[in-house]
């Protein structure tokens, strides 16, 4: 099973649409590079490289994908094999300070425990140029979105952590279950595989201590706010 088989090529048409919508939402903050300059872009936790497949289409873009999972990195290398000048790395420590004009981070923070969340925010801050922008997108897993998603998951894997009536009900009330099972995506890197239990309000508080939040928007129906949307996005700026 590949990553795209459960995202942009998932059997469920609504999930496919939502996954593709992620990239359109993330690129709302995107500006093409000036004709006489280069733009350095990083996809932080880039998965199988689908976002950079859409972005890295101009010769004036220098794109890097950081992905710690060897399996996902292998998928990204295959998917981006026709893109020139692409840099791949599984270690954030290999990336240089103050390098990137844009850092994209989609569908990552809902998988990170608190310690890894703080570390990832510090890394993104370190890697951005002064004045650089970060686009962070995460799912909404509380209130009515948690109910809709929970009902969908109950049809796929009943009894799993994110597909029990008790846990779905708790998240629907705005109190997601705290006992999320963890694993290691790579040695020493803890990871939550389930989305349920994530609370974007906690992440927003952490973000606000590190970055200036330039904009926040909900998707796929921005005017409906957090109560009836699947995702929330942040446009962040590093202080000059």
Question: How many distinct folded domains?
Answer: 1
CATH homologous superfamily placement:
Vaccinia Virus protein VP39
Q: How would you characterize the largest beta sheet?
A: 7 strands, mixed
CATH topology: Rossmann fold
Mean pLDDT, nearest integer?
93
Number of helices: 7
**DSSP E strands, number:** 9
In the CATH hierarchy, the architecture is: 3-Layer(aba) Sandwich
Q: What is the structural class?
A: alpha/beta
Give the spatial strand order of the biggest sheet. 3-2-1-4-5-9-8
- What is the approximate shape? globular
Q: What low-confidence regions span 5 or more consecutive residues with pLDDT below 50?
A: none
Portion in strands: 15-25%
What is the alpha-carbon Rg in Å? 17 Å
Please bin the fraction of helical residues. 25-40%
Descriptive report:
The chain is of the alpha/beta class. It has one domain: 3-Layer(aba) Sandwich (Rossmann fold). 31% of the residues lie in helices and 24% in strands. It has 7 helices and 9 strands, in the order αβαβαββαβααββαββ. A 7-stranded mixed sheet has the order 3-2-1-4-5-9-8, with helices on both faces. α5 (143-156) packs antiparallel against α6. The chain is globular.
